[in-house]
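thread: overnight batch results

M.L. [08:02]
morning all. the overnight job finished for the chain we discussed friday. pasting input first so we're all looking at the same thing
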Amino acid sequence: MNVTIRTIDKVLFTDTALEINLPGLYGKVGIRPHHASMSVVLSEGEIQVKLANSTETFTVQNGIAQVSNNTVEVLLAS
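M.L. [08:03]
and the structure it wrote out:
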């Protein structure tokens, strides 16, 4: 699935991922390819993006993620 993590003014990450784990308001949310459409309000924590040969980690304070059509778009507060 395609994953993009950005702030309002720049793209921090974009790649094809096997899985992404998000720090939701009510706990961690795991997203894999072909996940149902949903929105996730993010809280303080870490986003983990699992790639074919590595894992990328991003520390976040808050933001929102949109999952749709095998794509995850994450917008973080600056």
